[in-house]
Every structure is written in structure tokens, then in C-alpha cells.
Batch of 2 targets.
Target 1
Amino acid sequence: MIDFQPDDEQLAILETVDRFMARRLPPEEQRRRDEGHAPPYDLLPEMGALGLLGLPFPAAFGGLEADWRTVALVQERMGLRGRMAASIFNRVIGFGGMSLMTYGSPAQREAFLPGLIAGELLFALALTEADAGSDAAGVKLKAARTASGWRLNGRKTWISDAQGASHLVTIARTDPEASRHAGISALLVPTDAPGLSMTPIPKLGNNCMPSFEVFYDNVDVGEDALMGAEGQGFAAMSQTLKYGRGGLAASCVGAAQRAVDLALAHAKERVQFGRPIGAFQAVQHRLADMQMRVDQARLACWHLAWLIATGRDSTREASQAKVIASEALQYATHHGMQILASAGYAAESEMGRLWRDARLFSFGEGANEIQRSLIARSMGL
Ligand SMILES: Cc1cc2nc3c(=O)[nH]c(=O)nc-3n(C[C@H](O)[C@H](O)[C@H](O)COP(=O)(O)OP(=O)(O)OC[C@H]3O[C@@H](n4cnc5c(N)ncnc54)[C@H](O)[C@@H]3O)c2cc1C
């Protein structure tokens, strides 16, 4: 039997999230940060002190050993209260920590997991290149063997949070002779390594998650920078995609619920023709359709979280959750804008920001077309 009621421990954690978000990232603070392009990295140590960044990790590293259902609930709640917090939370847990747990060496876990859990370190993923977007196995950035490790040369693009990160998990070509996937390895590169530089990419939205072009000019790292086995970087990274996609999806559900809540409040308050606009059936049906999409997406995310928590295969469901939730968010914000009309188009409107930022998620973190192809492949096509 499936139980949808969070247990007492989960409810207590969600209350902690609510209090933290109300204190540190209320809507006006989010607006201020968005306008100032100020990422909330300064909140990481407090998120760490509250135990949030250690949720799924072993106690030996400072973690709480919660299962993935709890992580998904927190991702959704942070998406509801302020997606910019969910973004860095997902980067630390779904990407950084889970990469170390899945394919990091014991020494790397020892060295970096406590710092990630405490909110002192941040890993970013350096995968995309100018000619390798959806075709990620086409990466060309070269890592050549040296006497003591690796020397990296090349360029990455659209690397989010690169400047705020302590390390870049860099997906590099270590064997130019091997077939596409087999010649790729993952290397942990400190952002203060000599020869590494970056320039910001001006962009349309998600202002609190700055993205960078990153240049590697004879960047030397030691042998111990290799994550997983040489030539296995692509396969290793693929094993962690479910955490990243699941995290993005859950935070999209929270943000989509926020869009519904804002639109509902507006529909009750805004009076035209002598009645609240929510009295018009056209507005009611729009809201009903928005809420249905959000509830469907929530179920997809909870199903994925249950599969992960119980150790079941979830590759297909991670793609499904990512597609369903990103499209639910776009649907909810698109129709939310219609309900708010001019009030949503004002520069300070939260709905406007949600709508603008939502545009990224149907192609970021693996385009939805690619997810659909993966789902079709899992169906034997
Ligand atoms: C704000 C932002 C933040 C990002 N952050 C990061 C990051 O932190 N780290 C990182 O490594 N990357 C990051 N990226 C890159 C992101 O992952 C890529 O944008 C994404 O994978 C798509 O690649 P592309 O933009 O090159 O599009 P393309 O691959 O050029 O795709 C263009 C269009 O063609 C379609 N298409 C391509 N191939 C196929 C196919 N086989 N079948 C059907 N349709 C196809 C796509 O679905 C898409 O609609 C970020 C991007 C943005 C915009």
C-alpha cells in the first residue's frame, strides 16, 4: 500500500525549511536578489547547520541518513518557498554529494563530503561545450596524462554557479582514440587552479544561478582528481542523473504550486464587472487545469522518490518526472500570467519571474526531447 502522509520526522524537517525560508528568503528578499543577480551561496552554511545538506548521507560524514522521499519533499518545499534555494540545495545534494557517493573514491568522499554537508563547499558540473549540448558524448575538452596527473585544455560553456563553486566536476576526453563514450573521464578541478578562468554569460533569467564560459589553459590536477575509473566518466555521470533530474522536477512542482497559489489569490481579490474574476468560469477552469497538472507532476516525483528510496531502477521515471514537472511549471506560469494579466507583467511581479525562469527547464538539465527519446528507448523503440 502506498502512504502519501509524510511521517512526523518529515513534517518536522519541512517545518524547519518553512521557518528558514521565511526568515532568510522571503519573497521581497528573493526579488532583491533577483534584481541584484545575487546568488544565495551565503545561505549554504546555515542550510548545512540545519542538517538539510546532509539529509541522504551517512552519519559518518555528518549526514542524517534520511531516505530519498524526504529529500524530494524538501526539494518540493524549497521550490514552493523560493526556487533559488532549491537550485543550490540540488547542486550540493543531487549533484555534488551523490556524485561522490556514486563514483567518488573513498579518499574523495573523506575529503569533500563533510565540507559539502556543512555548506562550505560547492561542486558545479562542467559538461556542456559549444559543440556538445544534447550530444554530450561529443565533448572535446582534453585531459592529457602528465607524470603526476592530468593537464586540461579546452573550453566549457553555460556552467552554472562555476564562480561560486569550490570545484568543477569536469567531463573531459582522456582518450581521443577510444570510441565516443569510452574516451571520457570525470575530473575534480578546484576553481582556484592556475590556468582556469571564466567569464559570465549574460542571460534571460534565473539571475541567482549565474552561468559561465570556462577556459582551461594548461590546468594541472593530480592523479587523485580522477572520479571513478578512467574512461568511465560518462557511464558514472549517467548513474547520478536520476538525482539531478528528480531534484529539478520536485523543485519545479513546488514552483508550479506557487504559481497556482498566486493566481488563485489574485482570482479571489481582483474585481472586474462587479465580481472577483475567479467567479468567471473561464478563470475557474484555467485554475483547475493548472492544479491538475501540478498534482500529476507531484505524483510523478513522489513515485520517482519511492523508486530511488527502495533501490529500484528509475532511469525512465526520472526522465518522465523531469518532463512532466518542467512542463507543468511552464503550463502553470503561462496560465498564471494570463490570470494576473498586467499585474503579472510588472517588473516586480513574482509570477512574472516564475514564468521567465520556468522557460529554462524544458531544455536545461537534458532537453525534454532527449528525455522523450530515452523513455521511448526504454519502451523498446
Ligand atoms: C541557464 C543554463 C544553465 C545551464 N547550466 C549548465 C551546467 O551547470 N552545466 C552544464 O554542463 N551545462 C549547463 N547548461 C547547458 C544545458 O545542459 C544545455 O543547454 C542542454 O543540454 C541543451 O543543449 P543545447 O543548448 O546545446 O541545445 P541543442 O543540443 O543544440 O539542442 C537544440 C534543440 O534541438 C533538439 N535536439 C537536439 N538533439 C536532438 C535529438 N537527438 N532528437 C530530438 N531533438 C534534439 C533539442 O531538444 C533542442 O530543442 C545550462 C544551460 C542553460 C541555458
Target 2
Amino acid sequence: TYHNEHFMNKKLLGGMQNEIEKPKYAMEMKALIRLCGNIIEEDELKKQLEQSNGNVSQVVEKIISKLMNQNIKESKEIEYTSDKFKREKEKVEVGEIKPGINLQGYCINEKCLASKAKLPIWINIGFKNISFISDKTCLICPDCKLSTITSIIKALFYNSEYSIRASDDLLPLKDNNYQVSYTIKSGLSYELNANKIRQHAKNIEDLRERSEYAMNSIEIKNLIIELQRYEITV
Ligand SMILES: [Zn+2]
């Protein structure tokens, strides 16, 4: 093919650069950089493009599948670092942060250390629904084990797909996050829910579906239109 000959010629020249000649796959590179230059190094894009013999859509598909694998790895890393995170948290606050819903409140048991220190303490609820009135709670204190946590000041979702709704909210707020916290206002009632974050690509089939979806996305369509303007067939 043309590209192989081109490659051979370049090799025979022994690294000498032809000034007039455009760099190999210049237009394809330009398109790829526009599309994913902010997430993938230019050198890596060039390498991928050469490996795919200049087939832009193949490179894009590869990148998408690579990114999804990264997502899975990242969520695993979060689990590994959770211990470290807990230790850091313990320096300034009482209690542990665990996956799911965490509520921070005050214990009123006078004999409780957390209460004596006047420090708010974290209570782990886990992955479930919970509703409460922020200043009328009756939760078990992780420190003294009595139901003496009577007020909540903060909610933290850790590694969760969650929703939170205060009585003055029209709609619940839904999101998923590694770690996000909300101030709990005094006197309002709240409904909280947390579920485990679903794995990003369960299997190859799912990945293929996602790639196809991505290939049909507006960004890719625009890229293809642009490529066609330069008479590159995708
Ligand atoms: Zn206590």
C-alpha cells in the first residue's frame, strides 16, 4: 500500500526529512488532537494512528475502550485509597467515613468522649434510604453506642450514586460521586438514598454498545463531516 511504501522510503532515507512533504497523517492527527488532545498525549495519538494505518475511527474506538477501562481501574483505586482517606479524616474529625451515606452529628451523652470534646461525629448509614428531621434525630453514636446523636449538621456520600432531598426542595438532587458533602440545615426534614456506583463497562457487549453510541455522537459526526471535507474516508 501507499503507506507501507511511504514508510519504507522514509526508512531508506535514514531519517532525512523531506521539507516539502507533509507529515504522515497530518490531517488525521489534526482531527484526533481536536477530538481527544486534552485526554491523550499527542505522541500516543500518533502511535495509535500509525498502528491503525491512519484509520481515525479505529483510533477513536480504541481510545474510548481504553478510557472505559481506566474508569474501572480508577474506581478500584478509590477502594484502595479509602483507608488512607479515613486516616486523614480522623485527624480532624471523630468517626469513620465509609461507602454510602455518612451523617455528621452531635452526641448529647455527657459521658461520651465525642460529646465532651464537642466534636461532631461521623455515623455511617451505608447504602440505603434514610429520612430524618435534622435536629430531631435518634441515631446511635459510634463512640458511646447510645442513641444520643440528636442533631445532624452534614451529610457525606462516599463512592455512591445518591439522591438527597430537603423538605424545602422541589425535586431531589441526584448524582454520583467519589466523595461529596452537603450541609444539613437545622429544622428541615431530609430524605437520602445511596446505591453502589454501577461498574462503567460490565462486559464487552456493553462496551461495544457504548462505542457505537460514541461513534454516533455529535462530536464524532462533526469530526467525520470535517474529515470528509478533506476527502478522507472514514
Ligand atoms: Zn456518644
